[in-house]
Task: structure prediction
Amino acid sequence: MLCQTTAYIDLKSIEHNTAIVRSRLKPETKIMAAVKAEAYGHGLAAVSNKLYSLGVKSFAVACLDEALSLRRCLSDCEILILGFTHPSQAAILSENRISQAIYSEEFALALSNYCQKNGVSVTAHLAFDTGMGRIGFTDVDAAIRASKLSGISVEGAFTHFSRADMTDDESIEYTKNQYKKFSDIVSKLKKEIKTPLVCHCANSAGVFRYPEFQMDMIRAGIVLYGLAPNPEDKETYKDIKPAMQLKTVISHVKTVKAGDSISYGGTFVADKEMRIATVPCGYADGYLRSFGAGYALICGKKAKIVGRVCMDQMMLDVTDIPEAELLCKVTLMGKSGDEVISADDLARLDESINYQVVCGVTKRVVRVYE
Result:
């Protein structure tokens, strides 16, 4: 029963999307699933357990807290932290068998120092900046020196594409350049580092647009959740299915007169008698004020949002939806009848991206897994 604002997560869609990704890979290519940010808002525990049951054994997160949450869910999966961990947490990384991205010689020296102080060894993947401009070695010799420091056991190397989702000629050339740089780095690493290395560069867009860039492993993120890295490139991502729907209920219905204003600031004033429905969802649930330029779905019909979206509530015009009444289901993202509101539709209202929409669904929104 829908009792409040709820995110419905279709695990079968995640299974379908995983199968689509796998169908594009060579049999020997491993999948690393990006489950950072609570699996892009879909729920870390449920999604990771589902992916693990589908044969995905490697996972990427952003920080130590996420890694520890994942370790509590899955005792024997491979975990890589893609971002920063304070070097003083070396013992925690070691005890929980969590690999850390190493992206500079300075960071590697600090991590090595704490490893030696605690008598531990940390596994690591070397991160290279080939054009993202975020974090990563730009000097392969510095990375090789870092790999030989005490307490650090390098097991992989990776880079990240910054334009693989883009379809213009300049971006295509840029991505190919990034791959060429990283391929040259890998060749040099393998001559200097004698232990086996798992090398990876292809993100979600890379998997779909550059199948020749698979290397040993790919990192799939947004496509696992059924969303396209570039919504304008519909043909490339036509086979994936969105896993999240966001629904709520009508908590109150009233009739207002011409001249009555709705919500903060009186930005909406009725120009005639109207039926207005209130629903218990607002920006504290992740439904942003900017989404107020759009609409919701009730009984397969569009209901315009009127007035400003509040922290916990918002109002809808249901004048032409007579069946809209107390406890009636409201679709904020997803399908109702023949109508659909996608994460991309909401993102356009905010001039943002679908990643931000689903990641922004807050913790107080109940997740229900189907």
